[in-house]
Specification:
Radius of gyration: 31 Å
Distance between the termini: 63 Å
Strand content: 15-25%
Largest sheet: 6 strands, mixed
Strand order of the largest sheet: 8-13-12-11-9-10
Number of strands: 21
Shape: elongated
Helix content: 25-40%
């Protein structure tokens, strides 16, 4: 008689699966809670102690870690030496192992959980059973996912065993599963011990959805998510309306939300291709939206909007006048939804925007590796005025507004601002003066008496000359160039106030 070990935390569809195995001639061996669950359902089941002749000990921490179990799993059936050894030790072959693990993920996600509970939900015997079975996949069918029950039963009924292809596929799933499980545990202890950049970095993500394509139609793509739900995260958004998000939509939405985190007042971010095309602050949402729109009424077409305020009917009416891909907000009024849902393909996303002080790591894949860094969280940098003229209180307010924006613009980056709105943005240029010229050209006459923010220092005075000729009255930049004095002298010539922050904000 073939033997199967069944030991699961998640008992979804377990009874029909085990009944099917028994119907195919399998003896069921089980442990602890699973044994009681099956027995109470009237299913004939053998306790693991009857196989090992050794009781469960240490509050169930040691049950299946025994040669009678692992010998029966790991023995290679057509290896004569293995045959002699299992026979001499009276070990029976185990042909199928069905195990899912203690709910470590679910445990760490609970807000009221103790460290003792977390530790007890680190499974030891389960991963050992799974890995042993997966290693010997040619002789053992291993199952860690209840979604595979039907396929396994179907093949056993048809062929009296699962096919080698299925065995290998199930084994591969097991190794991914146990690797992910261990990665979660490693991540928990990394956080507990404040380990920032370990020698070996283990990351795990869960498939959220397969995407229609990537950046371009010829590229395949999928979206994966972390176990922990974070605020300002598009992946955890609730979609109220519109077609499925694309790869580019997700990238843009994430970029817009990270800019939005910078502002406490009512804010609207208009974004296109991961660069803001307009940012506006207002006393209410309609005012903020109008500022973001007016910042660049051309580029906003086909872009996305993110705001930290509930979308009301009046603002929805204004938004509906422009073709937008996505609108992101903490909520939408019912009246606003009536307006916006008339746009068939417009995606409406509700995102958790609760305060969050957690520093997160950013990672970018490169060929053969991964770059990892802390996120560029805005901090209260030390501001030093280096020019004869000091900025007015209003200019300082606009400088800080622009400086929060420029760190989210692709480098080299220049942002011009006035009246709590961006009026010109130069992004992703190979030289800084080029970015300044683009921003000034976009702003036009609005540049007069506006402020300028730069993500990095001025290597020479040419950017100041562009600003001065356009009528810019104040500049904020990190400083640190060997030619800083040239820029300071140029500002003094134009009567521009300039502040150094000492902190660079490159974005590649």
């Amino acid at each position: 008689m073939k033997k199967a070990i069944v030991s699961v935390s998640d008992k979804t569809n377990l009874i029909p699966f085990v009944s099917g195995l028994i119907g195919c001639g399998y003896e069921i061996i089980s442990t602890g809670g699973t044994y009681k669950y099956l027995a109470s359902a009237g299913i004939k089941v053998t306790a693991v102690e009857e196989i090992t002749h050794f009781p469960e000990i240490l509050d169930g921490r040691v049950k299946t870690l025994h040669p009678k179990i692992h010998g029966g799993i790991l023995s290679i059936r057509d290896n004569p030496n293995h045959q002699i050894q299992v026979a001499s030790q009276k070990i029976d072959y185990i042909d199928l192992v069905c195990v899912n693990l203690y709910p470590f993920k679910e445990t760490i996600l609970r807000s009221d959980v103790s460290e003792a509970e977390i530790i007890e939900n680190i499974d030891i015997g389960g991963p050992a059973l799974l890995r042993s079975s997966a290693k010997n996949f040619r002789d053992v069918t291993v199952i860690c996912d209840s979604n595979d029950y039907d396929k396994v039963l179907q093949e056993i009924r048809q062929y009296e065993d699962t096919t080698l292809e299925t065995k290998k596929t199930l084994a591969a799933k097991v190794f991914r599963h146990t690797a992910s499980y261990d990665a979660l545990i490693a991540d928990y202890f990394m956080k507990q011990t404040n380990c920032e950049f370990p020698k070996q970095l283990t990351l795990t993500y869960e498939l959220a959805q397969n995407l229609r394509y990537g950046e371009n139609p010829h590229q395949k793509a999928a979206l994966y998510k972390t176990v922990h739900k974070l605020p300002y995260s598009v992946i955890n958004a609730s979609q109220l309306h519109g077609k499925e998000l694309s790869y580019n939509n997700i990238q843009d939405a994430n970029a817009a939300l990270q800019i939005l985190r910078e502002y406490d007042k009512v804010a609207v971010i208009a974004l296109k291709h991961m660069n803001p095309c307009g940012i506006g602050l207002g006393r209410n949402l309609l005012e903020a939206y109008n500022k973001a729109y007016e910042a660049d009424p051309v580029s906003i077409f086909g872009g996305i909007i993110a705001t930290n305020a509930e979308v009301d009917r009046n603002t929805a009416l204004e938004m509906s006048k422009t073709f937008l891909e996505i609108i992101i907000a903490p909520s939408f009024s019912s009246e606003a939804l009536e307006v916006l849902q008339n746009k068939k393909n417009l995606r409406l996303l509700v995102v958790d925007m609760t305060d969050d002080i957690q520093r997160i790591k950013q990672s970018v894949s490169i060929v053969g590796g991964l770059l990892v860094q802390e996120d560029d969280s805005f901090t209260e940098e030390v501001y030093q005025c280096v020019t004869n003229r000091k900025p007015t209180d209003e200019e300082l307010k606009q400088l800080l507004f622009a400086y929060k924006a420029v760190k989210h613009v692709k480098s080299n980056a220049i942002v011009l601002a006035k009246d709590n709105m961006t009026i010109g943005i130069g992004a992703g240029q190979m030289n800084r003066v080029g970015a300044a010229e683009i921003a000034v050209s976009q702003a036009g006459i609005k540049a007069v008496n506006a402020v300028m923010a730069s993500d990095a220092f001025f290597p020479m005075r040419d950017t100041v000359d562009v600003a001065g000729k356009a009528g810019i009255k104040a500049i904020i930049q990190p400083g640190g160039s060997i030619k800083d004095q040239e820029s300071i002298d140029a500002c003094n010539e134009y009567g521009i106030a300039m502040i150094f922050t000492g902190v660079r904000h490159f974005k590649h």
